[in-house]
Amino acid sequence: MKTKGYIYLKIAGVVEACLGIATIRLALVLLSNDPNGLVDLTGINVANTLWSLVWLYGFSAFQVIAGLVGAIHANKTHKAGVCIVLGILLIVGHFITLSTGNLSGVDATGIIQYTQIIIPVAYLIGAVVNKNSH
Question: Which three-class secondary structure string do you get for the chain?
Answer without folding.
Answer: CCCCCHHHHHHHHHHHHHHHHHHHHHHHHHHHHCCCHHHHHHCCCHHHHHHHHHHHHHHHHHHHHHHHHHHHCCCCHHHHHHHHHHHHHHHHHHHHHHHHCCCCCCCHHHHHHHHCCHHHHHHHHHHHHHHHCC
